[in-house]
Amino acid sequence: MKKIAILIEELFDEQELIYPYYRLLEDYEVDLIGAEEGKEYKSKAGFTKKSTKASKDVSADEYAALYIPGGFSPDYMRRTQATVDLVKEFEAQGKPIAAICHAGWMLASCCDIQGEDITSTKSIADDLINAGANWVDREVVVSGNHLSSRGPGDMPALMKELLKAIEG
Q: Which of the residues 49, 53, 95, 102 is marked catalytic?
């Protein structure tokens, strides 16, 4: 069975984590990967979810794809070098990396998005443009191994594209 990695950190958006987590569990083994293993991370609304692995203890070799939820959590994710390094491994291997809302911060910090079409929440468009991306306002954008969406309302479109990428 294929394994999928989902990053988790403090102040994640609960919609952007829970919907993809359970959808992916229908067909794959899913690990919630945080800075620490077994830690309870709080969402923006106070909902908690526990990590199953620490980013320092896993490798992109173990997974078919990576999903990065938004909220304010991507700002915390990029403060943990092991998490940044893990995303860079996925990038180097050309594996699918899905990013929604503020998760574009991780693409800007970890991936070569120069000249790629990328979407996100509008509030971080400047960050993506400054990282070299062509920011576009669409529900889902697929550019190479990067899949991106603007926010919770776009998750069905993002998940359809991510499932295609995992199986393709």
A: 102
